[in-house]
Amino acid sequence: MSGIDASSILQMRNQILQQNAALQRVATAPVMPPAAPGAAAPVEQTGFTSALRDALTQVNSLQAASSEATAAYERGETTDIAAVMLAREQSSLGFQATLQVRNKLLTAYRDIMSMPV
């Protein structure tokens, strides 16, 4: 075996649990109300459109990196198949997540449009 033992696995597990706890704290943190007029300027808040644009840009960059890693492997410039497969899987997961968000948005739009006025 190449350096994998129980202590390193437990250490990685603890790091994952700590990151999960941090993400849960951020997700459940209360949203601050807007500042009163004349108060100090709040940190720039992003809207839904910019968040969606950023997410799509990130997925696009993952797909470009995946394509480049695959092309480099096919040309023989790299021999690390694990890195290539990891890049492809990240790209695939990002695309699938984006597709699911799109499907949910379309379903919500259809539901709203079919509501009686």
UniProtKB/TrEMBL annotation:
GO terms for cellular component: bacterial-type flagellum basal body. Its main location: other. It is found in: Bacterial flagellum basal body. GO terms for biological process: bacterial-type flagellum-dependent cell motility. The keyword RNA-binding does not apply. The keyword Acyltransferase does not apply. Signal peptide: none annotated. It comes from the Bacteria. Keywords: Bacterial flagellum, Cell projection, Cilium, Flagellum. One of its GO terms (molecular function) is structural molecule activity. NCBIfam families: fliE. Belongs to the FliE family. This is Flagellar hook-basal body complex protein FliE. It comes from Sphingomonas gilva. The gene is fliE.
